[in-house]
C-alpha cells in the first residue's frame, strides 16, 4: 500500500501495461492501450486516434485529466491524480442495435467488475454506476456516423471511475463514493480492475441484446423509486417533472409513470435524478454507507 503521512492514497509511479495485458481475457477490447499521465480529456485523444483509423477496442487511459467531461448539460468530471480510472474506449459497431447494446452495457460492465472486487455496485439509467445512493462511475458516449464510410464512423465510451480516490472531502463528498471507500480503505489495483472492466464489456458485447437488458434490470437501482425527469437544461426547472420509475423496457429505455396517469412515458435521452428526494435524508445523515 502506498500512502502519505496522513494515510491518503498515493498514486503509484506508473501504470503497468504489461501487468494489465496479462490479466486481459479479451480479443479486442483493451488490446491496443495508450496510457498518458495527464491530458485535458481522454475523449479528445481518442477522437483524434479514431479519426486516424485506430482499431476497434483501442483504449486511452490517463492518470489525471485537466478538463474531464461529464454527461450532459456542460458538466465536468473531477479527475485528480488519486488512483482513479479515466478512460475512453474506441469502438466501431456495425449496427445501431449493437451501438445501443454497448452503450447500455458499458455501465453494466463497470458495475460487474466492481462487484467482483466486493463492491455492491448497481446501474442507474442510462449509464451511471452507483453504490447505495452515491455515484461511483459515469459513462459519456459520443458517436460519429459517416454514411458509407466505416473508417470515419465510431463510438467513444468515456468512462470515469472513482477507484482509489478520497471522496470524503470537497463538494462531491455526499453524492459520490469510490471503491476504496466502500472497502474500508483497501487499495484497488488499477491494472486488475481495468482488465476486469474490459473483460466484462467484451463478454457483454457478445451477448444477445435481451440478455444484456435482463442483466441490466438485475442491477438497476432506479426501478420502484420516485424521480425527477429533466428533459432539458438543469437550470430550466420549468421543464422538470416528477415521476415514478417502472424500469427499463426491452429496448433499454427507462419507463416512468407520471402522477395517476395510467400510461407510461418512455425516456430515451432525458436526465433522471433522485437527488431531490435524497436532500432531506442527507441533511440528517452526513454520509451514505457502502455495503
Automatic annotation (TrEMBL):
The keyword Lipid biosynthesis does not apply. It holds the Pfam family BPL_LplA_LipB. It comes from the Eukaryota. One of its GO terms (cellular component) is cytoplasm. GO terms for molecular function: biotin--[biotin carboxyl-carrier protein] ligase activity. Keywords: Ligase, Mitochondrion. The keyword Lyase does not apply. Residues 18-209 form the BPL/LPL catalytic domain. Belongs to the biotin--protein ligase family. This is BPL/LPL catalytic domain-containing protein. It comes from Plasmodiophora brassicae. The lineage of its organism: Eukaryota, Sar, Rhizaria, Endomyxa, Phytomyxea.
Amino acid at each position: 500500500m502506498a500512502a502519505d503521512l496522513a494515510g491518503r492514497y498515493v498514486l503509484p509511479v506508473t501504470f503497468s501495461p504489461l501487468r494489465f495485458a496479462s490479466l486481459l481475457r479479451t480479443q479486442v477490447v483493451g488490446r491496443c492501450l495508450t496510457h498518458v499521465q495527464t491530458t485535458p480529456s481522454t475523449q479528445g485523444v481518442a477522437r483524434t486516434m479514431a479519426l486516424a483509423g485506430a482499431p476497434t477496442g483501442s483504449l486511452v487511459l490517463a492518470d489525471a485529466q485537466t478538463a474531464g467531461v461529464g454527461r450532459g448539460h456542460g458538466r465536468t468530471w473531477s479527475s485528480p491524480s488519486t488512483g482513479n480510472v479515466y478512460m475512453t474506449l474506441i469502438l466501431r459497431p456495425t449496427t445501431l442495435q449493437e451501438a445501443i447494446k454497448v452503450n447500455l452495457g458499458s455501465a453494466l460492465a463497470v458495475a460487474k467488475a466492481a462487484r467482483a472486487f466486493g463492491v455492491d455496485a448497481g446501474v442507474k439509467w442510462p449509464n451511471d454506476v452507483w453504490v447505495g445512493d452515491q455515484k461511483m462511475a459515469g459513462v459519456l458516449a459520443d458517436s460519429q456516423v459517416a454514411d458509407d464510410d466505416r473508417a470515419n464512423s465510431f463510438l467513444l465510451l468515456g468512462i470515469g471511475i472513482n477507484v482509489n480516490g478520497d471522496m470524503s472531502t470537497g463538494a462531491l463528498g455526499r453524492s459520490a463514493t469510490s471503491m476504496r471507500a466502500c472497502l474500508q480503505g483497501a487499495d484497488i489495483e488499477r491494472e486488475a480492475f481495468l482488465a476486469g472492466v474490459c473483460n466484462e464489456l467484451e463478454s457483454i458485447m457478445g451477448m444477445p441484446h435481451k440478455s444484456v437488458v435482463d442483466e441490466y434490470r438485475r442491477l438497476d437501482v432506479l426501478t420502484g423509486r420516485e424521480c425527477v425527469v429533466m428533459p432539458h437544461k438543469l437550470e430550466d426547472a420549468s421543464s422538470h417533472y416528477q415521476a415514478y420509475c417502472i424500469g427499463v423496457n426491452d429496448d433499454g429505455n427507462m419507463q416512468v409513470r407520471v402522477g395517476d396517469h395510467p400510461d407510461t412515458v418512455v425516456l430515451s435521452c432525458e436526465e433522471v435524478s433522485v437527488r431531490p428526494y435524497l436532500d432531506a435524508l442527507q441533511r440528517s445523515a452526513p454520509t451514505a454507507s457502502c455495503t
